[in-house]
Write a structure and sequence with these properties.
Oligomer: single chain
Largest sheet: 7 strands, parallel
Domain Glycosyltransferase subfamily 4-like N-terminal: 18-121
Keywords: Transferase
CATH superfamily of the largest domain: Glycogen Phosphorylase B
Shape: globular
Helix content: 25-40%
CATH architecture of the largest domain: 3-Layer(aba) Sandwich
Domain Glycosyl transferase family: 168-297
Number of domains: 2
Distance between the termini: 30 Å
GO molecular function, one term: glycosyltransferase activity
Protein name: Glycosyl transferase
C-alpha cells in the first residue's frame, strides 16, 4: 500500500526531546515500513525515518526561532501533499482539522488522527460542518465531546518493543514525574504526593513556552523542597534508566487526557503508574496490574503502600501485549483498508448512477 504520513512541523519526527504526536508518527511510520508498505513521511527536514522523507520545512519549528508564523509552513505542507496526493492510496494526517476543507474535495482517501483535546467549544462548528471527514481517536474517552464526528476507530498508541526496556540492575528508589510542566499535568500534586509519602521525587519535564507563568508562580517555588529534584527534559536514551529507577510514575492529571504516552513508556520499563481517574487513564492502566487508578492525592499516597503487590515483569508483558508499535500499525492498516473499500464502493455507485 502507498501511504502518506503527514506530521506537524513543530517538532522533528521523532522529537529530540519532548513531543507526543511527532513521536507516535515516527513509531507508526517505521512500523508500516517494517510491514512492507511504501510510506512517504511529510515532516520537517531534520526528521529521521525508515520511510521516504519529504521535507516540508528545513527543521522543526520549535528549534527555529526565526519562524514567527507557524501557520505559513503548514500551509506549504498541505499544498505539497495536495500536489502529490494522486501518488498515494491513502493520506494519513496528524494535523487535527487542518486538512478537512482542502482534502474533502479530492478523490484520494484520507483520514486524520486527532491527537489533542477536543472539549473546546470552537471545535463544535468545525465538526458540524465537516461531519463526513473520517477521523480516528486515540481513546474512547477522547470522543465524548464530539459525538457528531465521523469516527472510524479508536487506536491506542504504541512504542517499538525494544525502544524502552527495563533496567533490572536499577533498584527503584524514588517517584518519577515525566512530561511537561503545565497546569493540567499537575506536577505540583506530584510534589504533594511525594512529600506525604516520604519518598524523593525526580521530575524530568519540559517547561513549555505556553506556561511560563505557571512555572514561575506555582511550580518553581516547590523546587526548593529537599525531596524534589528537577532534571529537566530528557531524551529517549535517558528514559529507561530514569523510569526503571522509579518505584512508580506519578500521573496526577487534572484534565481529560486523550491518551498519555508517558504511561506506556513507564509500562515498557516495567514501572507501575499511579494515575488520577481522568480521560484515557482507565483505558490505558489496568488497575492492580500495571498500576493504580485513584481520585486524589490522598488516594495516591494510599496506593503507594501497595506497590509491592505489582509484578514489574507482568507490567512489561502487558505493555508488549497492548501497546507495541506493530499492533498500532496493524490497526491503522485495517482502517486504511476500510477507507479504500468505502472509496471503491462510492466509485461503483457513481458509475451505476450514470
Amino acid at each position: 500500500m502507498r501511504i502518506a504520513q503527514i506530521a506537524p512541523l513543530h517538532e522533528a519526527v521523532p522529537p529530540k526531546f519532548y513531543g507526543g504526536t511527532e513521536r507516535v508518527v515516527a513509531y507508526l511510520t517505521d512500523a508500516l515500513v517494517d510491514l512492507g508498505h511504501d510510506v512517504t513521511l511529510f515532516a520537517s527536514g531534520d526528521s529521521r525515518t525508515k520511510a521516504t522523507l519529504e521535507a516540508a520545512w528545513p527543521r522543526a519549528l520549535r528549534l527555529d526561532p526565526s519562524t514567527r508564523d507557524v501557520i505559513a509552513p503548514h500551509m506549504l505542507l498541505l499544498e505539497s501533499v495536495r500536489q502529490r496526493a494522486h501518488e498515494f492510496d491513502v493520506l494519513h494526517f496528524h494535523l487535527d482539522y487542518l486538512p478537512f476543507s482542502l482534502f474533502s474535495a479530492l478523490d484520494v482517501p484520507f483520514v486524520s488522527t486527532l491527537h489533542g483535546r477536543l472539549d473546546l467549544p470552537e471545535l463544535q462548528p468545525i465538526f458540524n460542518t465537516f461531519s463526513k471527514a473520517p477521523v480516528i481517536s486515540i481513546s474512547d474517552s477522547q470522543r465524548l465531546s464530539l459525538p457528531q464526528a465521523n469516527w472510524l476507530k479508536t487506536i491506542y498508541h504504541g512504542l517499538p518493543e525494544n525502544l524502552l526496556t527495563p533496567q533490572t540492575d536499577k533498584k527503584p528508589q524514588y517517584l518519577a514525574f515525566l512530561g511537561r510542566i503545565c497546569p493540567e499535568k499537575r506536577p505540583d500534586l506530584a510534589v504533594q504526593i511525594a512529600a506525604q509519602s516520604g519518598l524523593p521525587l525526580k521530575i524530568a519535564a519540559k517547561v513549555d513556552e505556553a506556561d511560563p507563568q505557571y512555572f514561575k508562580s506555582t511550580f518553581a517555588p516547590l523546587l526548593s523542597q529537599p525531596h524534589v529534584e528537577f532534571v529537566g527534559e530528557i531524551n529517549e536514551q535517558q528514559k529507561p534508566e530514569f523510569l526503571s529507577g522509579a518505584k512508580a510514575l506519578l500521573f496526577p492529571i487534572d484534565w481529560a487526557e486523550p491518551f498519555g504516552l508517558v504511561m506506556i513508556e513507564a509500562m515498557a520499563c516495567g514501572t507501575p503508574v499511579i494515575a488520577f481517574n481522568r480521560g484515557s487513564v482507565p483505558e490505558v492502566i489496568d488497575d492492580g496490574v500495571t498500576g493504580f487508578i485513584c481520585e486524589n492525592v490522598q488516594g495516591a499516597v494510599g496506593v503507594l503502600q501497595r506497590l509491592d503487590d505489582l509484578s514489574r515483569p507482568e507490567i512489561r508483558a502487558q505493555f508488549e501485549r497492548r501497546f507495541n508499535a506493530r499492533t498500532m500499525a496493524l490497526n491503522y492498516i485495517d482502517s486504511y483498508v476500510s477507507l479504500l473499500q468505502a472509496a471503491k464502493h462510492s466509485t461503483l455507485q457513481r458509475a451505476d448512477a450514470r
